[in-house]
Amino acid sequence: MLIFDDVFVRRAGSGLFRPVSFALQPGEIMTLQGESGLGKSTLLHALIDQEPGVEFMGQVTLDGHRMDADARLSTESQTVFQEPLLFPHLSIGANIELSMHQCAGIVREARVDQLLDQLGLQGMATQDPFQLSRGQMMRVAVARALAPHPRVLLLDEPLSALDTETREQVKQVIYEQVRHDGGYGILVTHHSEDRPIGGDVMCLTR
């Protein structure tokens, strides 16, 4: 299970939202919503890294192990940020392979091709990512996060740049992998329709 117990973040000594508590079973995704500026993205960042001026409060337990105060969930998770954060000197395939450094080369290549096919970017592994539209770049970022089959998937508005048809396609790929892998997902979005069908939603409040 992934358990949040009275979790919140503080900046300059002030809490950004009321503490939240929930528990996820393997294969489940929690959707976090709330007004802009409330600290949803800050929370996701705080789960993987320390940021000057930001304090992480409360306790997170992953599969029976309490989250380390320093490493946090960085070794167990992958994140899709609001910006694609792709490297211009690397091809699309090489950008995706960055999250699979522990896998053999032939495994990485096969996984890249599989994800590009699933996300509607067939045959684009050798291309320059900065020749893509923003929506296509976001799909590459999604592929990079999914590639190593992370235990925890952190999703910060991953669908906002996509058109309706592509949005549904990418949602299906993401949510099916989390279910199939028995992993855990935390989705930040302003759009209720983005959450998995039947998935829980928590609204952050001040």
Please, could you describe this protein's structure?
With 206 residues, the chain is an alpha/beta fold. Helix content is 29%, strand content 25%. It is built from 5 helices and 10 strands; from the N terminus they run ββββαβββαααβαββ. Strands 1, 2, 3, 5 and 6 form a 5-stranded antiparallel sheet that branches. β8, α5 and β9 form a beta-alpha-beta unit. The longest helix has 18 residues. The relative contact order is 0.21.
Keywords:
5-stranded antiparallel sheet; 29% helix; 206 residues; alpha/beta; 10 strands; globular
Termini separation comes to 27 Å
Shape: globular
How many β-strand runs? 10
Unreliable spans are: none
Quote the beta fraction: 25-35%
| Backbone structural class | alpha/beta
Count of helical stretches: 5
Please trace the helix and strand order, writing H or E for each element. Answer: EEEEHEEEHHHEHEE
Please, what is the average pLDDT? 95
Helix content: 25-40%
- CA-atom Rg in angstroms: 17 Å
The profile of the biggest β sheet is: 5 strands, antiparallel
Question: TL;DR of this structure?
Answer:
The chain has helices at 40-48, 92-97, 105-118, 134-146, 164-181; strands spanning 2-11, 14-15, 20-24, 28-33, 54-62, 65-66, 77-80, 152-156, 184-188, 200-203. By secondary structure, it is of the alpha/beta class. The mean pLDDT is 95.
